[in-house]
Amino acid sequence: LWEGLAEIAKSRNLPIDFRGAPACFSTTFLPPGSAPVTDFRSSLQCDPRPLDRFWRAMHHRGVQFTAFGIWFLSTAHTETDIA
User: Fold this and answer.
1) CA-CA distances (angstroms) from residue 67 to 49, 52, 63, 75, 79?
2) Pick from 73, 56, 76, 60: which is nearest to 1 by CA?
3) Mean pLDDT score across all residues of the chain
């Protein structure tokens, strides 16, 4: 899922930062030209507005993740779910 989202973001030139582990990862939107998030201080550069729009659009389509951009995967998710 992480790889697929990163591929889509890259193809659309979206400044999304991914971090964490494949089964539990976080997404944030970075300002253009900024460094990746590595700690709390660097997370302050993130703009919450694009994440909010992204979260609302995904939830409207039935994709559930937290409003903070945290995604959870489990063995209950199938390849079809991820696709």
Assistant:
1) 11, 7, 12, 22, 24
2) 73
3) 90
